[in-house]
Design brief:
6 helices; three-stranded parallel beta sheet; two-stranded parallel sheet; Rossmann fold; alpha/beta; binds adenosine-5'-diphosphate
Length: about 160
């Protein structure tokens, strides 16, 4: 099977979870390179800065070399895709509740740039309840995030909440 050259996996990644990691890892089976596009200007105020989020992704995927790169972007995703010379977007789906929003986004992106195609990967059942926002609710209360985020993120969460305590 010939692989797609490169695809963008866009999102907030505040922070990277095992759900995201699984989508990226499975995407590598059919993409030469996954560019993790970290949205620098989300409407919600982030826990980690864009640079910190990029850094955590790079640290976790260090062993993958150039096959996984993380870049922050602001502005329109379709412009970032043009800049990165790809037409392929990846998104993950957890539940039917994700579908309405994801469908709207995919149709809007196609409206903005007719070349763009969005591919959806279904989460693994064991990751279906994991979200960055839930991680941010559990971690400051001392709940274990061990099976929710990669070790490098668990450490960063501990540092973050210790420094604000
Ligand atoms: P956004 O704010 O753009 O939704 P997120 O960082 O929350 O950014 O998510 C980025 C992408 O990862 C989205 O496509 C989302 O559906 C997907 N995703 C998030 N959590 C999971 C998970 N547990 N399993 C699979 N996909 C997920």
């Amino acid at each position: 099977m010939s692989k797609l050259a490169r695809a963008i996996f866009p999102g907030s990644f505040d922070p990277l979870t095992l759900g995201h990691v699984d989508i990226i890892t499975r995407a590598l089976e059919f993409c030469e390179q996954v560019i993790v596009g970290v949205l620098a200007n989300p409407s919600k105020s982030p826990l980690f800065t864009a640079d910190e989020r990029v850094d955590l992704i790079e640290q976790h995927f260090r062993l993958y070399g150039e096959r996984v790169v993380a870049e922050s972007f602001s502005g329109l995703l379709v412009d970032f895709a043009k800049e990165q010379k790809t037409r392929v977007l990846l998104r993950g789906l957890r539940a039917t509740s994700d579908f309405d929003y994801e469908a709207q986004m995919a149709l809007m992106n196609r409206h903005l740039s007719s070349e763009i195609e969005t591919f959806f990967l279904m989460t693994l059942e064991k990751h279906s309840y994991i979200s960055s926002s839930l991680v941010k609710q559990v971690a400051p209360l001392g709940g274990s995030v061990e099976h929710l985020v990669p070790p490098v993120v668990a450490e960063a969460l501990m540092d973050k909440y210790e420094s604000v305590a």
